[in-house]
Here is the input.
Amino acid sequence: MFEFDRETVDALVLDSAEFRRLYDKYGALKTRVENANAKQVVMDRQELEHLKKEKLQLKDRMAGIIKGYRSVHA
Here is the structure.
């Protein structure tokens, strides 16, 4: 996620409690989705779809924070 701008992500993880919280939650959801897709965890399709949507919403929120950070630190 956001590998194209690792420096900005690293700065935000250090400087922003909100971004750090979103980033950590995104990582946890990503792991749960990957485990479900790999059949390492039993999960019904509806729950998996909910996790995927939540993960996407977090990614969108982080993208907005990154965009705002870049506009100030460009």
